């Protein structure tokens, strides 16, 4: 296994058309469907980075800031922005696209932690994260700051 991997090597983009089976009675995406897509996207990003199976360890707070309407396309993007010895932190963003008007809007962001697994199912070491381009450094820094801001907001909101 390589000892280093880049943000770009983990980058994953998925699309899903919102169909009636994944909607509530208002014709908008069920939160559980969006979380499912986010978890899959994050896991793929983690597997691309680590070159091995990963499992979800945690997911940070999620705010659904805008709906995804029936017939719109959900674009789910994820990338690894931080690593531990056996864990990977992945930022996952979701935006809605109206394919008829090309309008887009941000709908959801969260941060996931995955653990890499060896063939026997035990935790396995992951590559060191490198950012060889200014764009990758900016993505990493944006994710770190976004997670910090989200955690600060939660502490304030719930008076922790």
TrEMBL record:
CDD domains: BFIT_BACH (cd03442). SUPFAM superfamilies: Thioesterase/thiol ester dehydrase-isomerase. InterPro entries: Cytosol_ACT, HOTDOG_ACOT, HotDog_dom_sf, Thioestr_dom. Residues 8-120 form the HotDog ACOT-type domain. Pfam families: 4HBT. Keywords: Hydrolase. It is an enzyme of class 3 (hydrolase). Its EC number is 3.1.2.20. GO terms for molecular function: fatty acyl-CoA hydrolase activity. This is Acyl-CoA thioesterase. It comes from Halorubrum yunnanense.
């Amino acid at each position: 296994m390589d000892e280093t991997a880049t943000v770009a090597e983990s980058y994953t983009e998925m699309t899903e058309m919102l169909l009636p089976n994944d909607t509530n009675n208002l014709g908008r995406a069920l939160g559980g469907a969006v979380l499912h897509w986010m978890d899959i996207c994050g896991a793929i990003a983690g597997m691309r980075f680590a070159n091995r199976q990963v499992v979800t360890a945690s997911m940070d707070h999620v705010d659904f800031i805008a709906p995804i309407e029936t017939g719109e396309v959900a674009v789910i993007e994820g990338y690894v922005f931080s690593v531990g010895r056996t864990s990977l932190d992945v930022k996952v963003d979701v935006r809605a696209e109206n394919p008829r008007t090309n309008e887009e809007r941000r709908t959801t962001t969260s941060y996931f932690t995955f653990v890499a697994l060896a063939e026997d199912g035990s935790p396995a070491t992951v590559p060191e994260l490198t950012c060889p381009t200014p764009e990758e450094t900016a993505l990493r820094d944006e994710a770190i700051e976004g997670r910090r801001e989200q955690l600060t907001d939660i502490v304030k909101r719930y008076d922790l």
